[in-house]
Design goal:
Elements (H helix, E strand, L loop, with lengths): L1 E5 L2 E5 L2 H10 L1 H11 L1 H11 L4 H19 L2 H8 L1 H7 L1 H12 L4 H29 L5 H5 L1 H19 L2 H20 L5 H6 L3 H12 L6 H16 L4 H4 L3 H19 L2 H15 L5 H22 L5 H25 L19 H16 L3 H10 L2 H33 L1 H21 L9 H9 L3 H4 L4
Antiparallel strand pairs: 1-2
Helix pairs in contact: 1-8, 2-8, 2-10, 2-11, 3-17, 4-8, 4-22, 5-6, 6-8, 6-11, 7-8, 7-11, 10-18, 16-21, 16-22, 16-23, 16-24, 17-18, 17-20, 18-20, 19-20, 19-23, 22-23
Length: about 475
């Protein structure tokens, strides 16, 4: 229980319903995770079954990111018009269309279109679910509830890594479709965001939502009054989107936001998630590639929990530095392994390699890579992007940053296969190393520490001016 002193009246709240609502919203993230991890366990079977070319499979694996990039942009308008809850429930429809197309796929175009629909749903969830979670939670637990999203994405990835080798592709697709439906059923019973209801002046409904989230005896009037005052202040100090760009804080925030998104993808994270089984198979290690992939998924999930716990204790910047340095070393090591043990050309007979005793290195390097990613450049990136964007630009620039991130993810994942076939697996991973090495410099010299700072204080820090001057840009 938590106590607040409001007008000298102390009242208790319960946090459990907030955790429930946050976890229910993040159920959409679990559905996204199944779609993201899907290519890894089913890739070989699908390529053989439908006789897909390498380029066709590259499209099937990566098109989900294009769909996600496009859906990031309009989702804010839909949430504003229809509310957070019903917009998120409606996203079950493109999820179902996508999985149904994959269940009944007859060839490349049905696979391609199904994955595109999954991306449309997934990208929209990446904007809507974190916003819903932030709006329903008390500020003291907003951070931990905000990490549910990344945690359940990784849970979905691990889930499909496990079931993929155990059942047929059709059954895998049916189960994944069921995950999306289950989210919709559970989330139907969650309350609408009270923030949205206050903005819409639906005060009685907002009170009911707050009582659902805080407890039946809780009096939410002070929260409603505070939110009304904030809305009124925003309207009084309203500035246009173009005017906001006159502030140094806005320019710095965008530089930080787009930079973090860039180096998150330059690390090669989506290549590892999409093509983990292929990477292990290319490494020709003795451990079953499917088992290796499951191990990686478990590591990713477990250390995301650790990163979520540390982010409000250690700080954002130090975790990002540890993360990017560790990932650089891991992709460098992978490049060394593939230099010593080059991937044989397709159709070539296997050859004995006396130096192949480094078979432990791919599993170890990729495992540590995911440890370091989960500690920083996984959960912290989107947390910081939400912190550095001011209210005047966040509603527009946040989704644009999301679209940019997904488009860059497509660029990396689509061309991974072609690049590694052209220059070899070693140099492909070294490209990721070089990108991450630049990210080390960016993180060290550019990224500020936002731990323990309010949104207003962060804008002051980015603007480099007095609080009075900077407050206009909020």
């Amino acid at each position: 229980m938590t106590s607040y002193s409001v007008n000298t009246v102390t009242q208790g709240t319960t946090r459990f319903p907030q955790y429930v609502a946050g976890a229910a919203a993040a159920g959409g993230a679990f559905a996204i995770g199944t779609a993201l991890g899907w290519p890894s366990p089913v890739g070989d079977t699908l390529r053989n079954e439908y006789n897909l070319t390498d380029t066709q499979w590259d499209w099937v694996g990566s098109i989900i990111t294009i769909g996600a990039a496009f859906s990031c942009l309009p989702i804010g308008l839909l949430m504003k018009k229809f509310g957070r809850k019903w917009t998120m429930i409606a996203l079950v429809i493109p999820f179902l269309i996508g999985w149904i197309l994959l269940i009944f796929a007859q060839g490349f175009w049905m696979l391609f279109t199904g994955r595109l629909f999954l991306g449309l749903a997934g990208g929209a969830f990446c904007i809507s679910a974190p916003q819903y979670s932030a709006e329903i939670a008390e500020k003291e637990i907003r951070g931990i509830i905000g990490t549910f999203f990344q945690l359940l994405i990784n849970g979905g990835i691990l889930f499909v890594y496990i079931i993929g080798p155990l059942v047929s592709i059709t059954v895998t697709n049916i189960i994944c479709a069921g995950v999306a439906v289950l989210f919709g059923v559970i989330f139907f019973f969650m309350p609408e965001s009270p923030v949205f209801l206050v903005i819409e002046n639906r005060i009685d409904e907002a009170k009911h939502s707050y009582k659902w989230l805080r407890g039946a005896t809780y009096d939410p009037q002070w929260e409603i009054d505070e939110l009304k005052a904030e809305i009124a202040e925003t309207q009084r100090n309203h500035i246009t989107f173009s005017e906001a760009f006159k502030f140094k804080s806005t320019k710095m925030a965008m530089f930080i936001g787009f930079g973090l998104a860039t180096f998150q993808q330059m690390s090669g994270i989506n290549v590892v998630i999409f093509y983990a089984t292929d990477i292990f198979r290319a490494a020709n290690i003795t451990l079953n590639p499917d088992i290796s992939t499951i191990i990686l998924g478990s590591i990713n999930l477990g250390f995301t929990v650790v990163g979520s716990i540390l982010v409000d204790r250690v700080g954002r910047r130090i975790l990002l530095l540890i993360s990017i340095i560790g990932m650089t070393l891991c992709t460098t090591a992978l490049g060394v392994f593939f230099l010593i043990n080059p991937v044989p050309e397709e159709g070539a007979p296997p050859q004995d390699n006396p130096e192949a005793t480094l078979g432990w290195l791919p599993v170890t390097s990729l495992g540590l890579f995911l440890v370091f990613f989960a500690l920083g450049y996984g959960p912290v990136v989107w947390l910081m992007i939400g912190e550095v964007y001011s209210k005047s630009v966040g509603a527009v620039v946040g989704p644009v940053t999301g679209s940019y991130n997904w488009l860059f993810a497509w660029l990396i994942t689509f061309f991974f296969g072609a690049i590694q076939r052209a220059i070899g697996m070693a140099w492909t991973f070294w490209i990721f190393s070089i990108g991450s090495a630049v990210g080390i410099l960016f993180t060290f010299f550019i990224i500020p520490e936002t731990k323990g700072k309010s949104m207003a204080e962060i804008q002051v820090m980015l603007n480099g001016t007095s609080k009075k001057t900077s407050s206009i840009a909020q």
